[in-house]
Amino acid sequence: MDLAFVGGSMGWVVGEKIARLLERCVEHRTPAIVFCASGGARMQESLVALMQMPKTCGAAGKLAQAGVPY
Q1: Residues 8-35: pLDDT tens digits?
Q2: Interaxial angle between packed helices 12-28 and 52-66, expressed in degrees from 0 to 180 and rounded to the nearest 10
Q3: Where does residue 56 rank: exposed (0-12), middle (13-18), buried (19+ CB within 10 A)?
Q4: Is the pTM of this model over 0.90?
Q5: Phi, psi at 41, each rounded to 5°
Q6: What do you get for the CA distance between the two ends of the chain, in Å?
Q7: Who's near 69: CB < 8 A, 6+ residues apart?
Q8: Contact call for residues 23 and 63 (beta carbons, < 8 A)
């Protein structure tokens, strides 16, 4: 996340990659470590980018339900 570029915001692709990572961790029952350096969701990428927050939170919730640390 480059803070010199749009404040290091989380766009569509970043949210998708994080959600896929968390879902894969549920499948393989492996812990997930994520270092957050984002400035938030990127509104310039429209509603799809803004929907990454609930998507990633939902994936993290699946980890919690499976008892996998994150």
Answers
A1: 667 778 888 999 999 999 999 999 998 8
A2: 10
A3: buried
A4: no
A5: -80, 150
A6: 20
A7: 31, 32, 63
A8: no
